[in-house]
Amino acid sequence: MKYLDIESFRALNSQLSFPTTSGDRHVLGRIEAYSCKVAGADKKLYRYLENKYQEDLEEAKTLSPEQSSLTNIVSPFGPLTQSASRKTLFYLIATLNASFPDYDFSSLTADQFTKEPKTDFSIKSINTTLLNVGCPATLRTSRMWDIIDDAIKLDDCEVYSYTPEAESDHYDEEAPVWSFNYFFFNKSLRRIVFFTCRCVSNLEELESLSDQELVFGDLQDDPVETELYPTSQYALRGMMAIGGGIKF
């Protein structure tokens, strides 16, 4: 996967680090864009995943019909018997590997991902989470989703989420109160926007983070709003689609 350095994302990321309204927690988020261009390490990962799939198929042949049927369950990406479904799994794992180079996600399986029903639902979930913890006014007025839409064309995306198990959580050392990981995948553009965020509560853990991660935003002291005025035609369509949901 090739990391795409998008200047407008850098500005957003500086606003995705902020203290919560309670003051005893801190939100740390980032948005990254990747081209689905396969590099050397990615080719090795793809071969590994394909070989693992073939090994699983061979193992399934030794099982009873009842047990073997479990291997035919449709994944969030479609039937894994189809190469396109397996390639989507590969892209998401490769994105995680690129975003967290100190971790190896090659052991992840398709059932650890979820396909979100609609892009707007994912947007609403992210907005609600950030608003409820007191995102700064600068972020709420930043036209965040317009910026993301310019990079990925949200209307043409499939959205997947990843919720790690406790033993494989890439944020485990920080013991986050909560975290989320969303992938906005535009197949025709062959591009993924990865939106990851977590909330940490132990101030000692914040001391271990780099200064770059601790760019404080404005503390939101006012009551959290549950609805925002749309800032674009895209936001307006989104609000209508989710029944008065919230947009940045």
**Can you count the beta strands?**
7
What radius of gyration results from the CA coordinates? 19 Å
Helix content: 25-40%
**Mean pLDDT across every amino acid position:** 80
Shape descriptor reads globular
Structural class comes to alpha+beta
Low-confidence stretches: 214-247
Number of helices: 9
Share of β-strand residues: 15-25%
* H/E series: EHEEHHHEHHHEEEHH
Biggest sheet architecture: 7 strands, antiparallel
What is the terminal separation in angstroms? 28 Å
How would you characterize this protein structure?
The protein is of the alpha+beta class. The protein contains nine helices and seven strands; from the N terminus they run βαββαααβαααβββαα. The chain has helices at residues 7-15, 40-60, 65-68, 83-99, 119-132, 137-140, 144-152, 203-207, 233-241; strands at residues 2-4, 17-19, 26-35, 113-115, 158-162, 178-186, 191-200. Strands 1, 2, 3, 4, 5, 6 and 7 form a seven-stranded antiparallel beta sheet that branches. Helix 2 packs across helix 4 (83-99). The radius of gyration is 19 Å and the shape is globular.
Secondary-structure topology with pairs:
Blueprint: E1 2-4, H1 7-15, E2 17-19, E3 26-35, H2 40-60, H3 65-68, H4 83-99, E4 113-115, H5 119-132, H6 137-140, H7 144-152, E5 158-162, E6 178-186, E7 191-200, H8 203-207, H9 233-241
